[in-house]
Amino acid sequence: METVEQLVSFNHIQVQLSGGAPWGFTLKGGLEHGEPLIITKIEDGGKAAQCKKLKVGDELININGSALYGSRQEALILIKGSYRILKITVRR
């Protein structure tokens, strides 16, 4: 039988994408919709696909060292402000 800690454990994955936008993934959700920020699509051949670390369903929790508070608009501003390197942390 699994413990509560095992049932609620998450993996935090740190990803660094290089080369500038487009980064090759799509987000859905956010506080505006009462949902977590979730990666819903990874573009074939895009930077997110090439890194092989991101998966559809990952929850975005940090961008370039800034903790996210759940707003999709906030996340988009931080992503668009990343010119050469995008560092993100996701929870799986």
From TrEMBL:
Cleaved signal peptide residues: none
Compartment(s) where it occurs, according to its Swiss-Prot or TrEMBL record: Cytoplasm, Cytoskeleton
Gene Ontology MF term list: actin filament binding
Domain PDZ: 12-92
The keyword Protein biosynthesis is assigned to this record: no
Annotated keywords: Actin-binding, Cytoplasm, Cytoskeleton, Developmental protein, Phosphoprotein
Pfam family name, one: PDZ
InterPro entries documented for this protein: PDZ, PDZ_sf, Shroom_fam
SMART domains in UniProt: PDZ (SM00228)
Keyword Phosphoprotein in record: yes
Biological process (GO), any one: actin filament organization
Domain of life assignment: Eukaryota
PROSITE patterns named in the record: PDZ
Family listed: Belongs to the shroom family.
Protein name per its UniProtKB record: Shroom family member 4
Gene behind the chain: LOC115376162
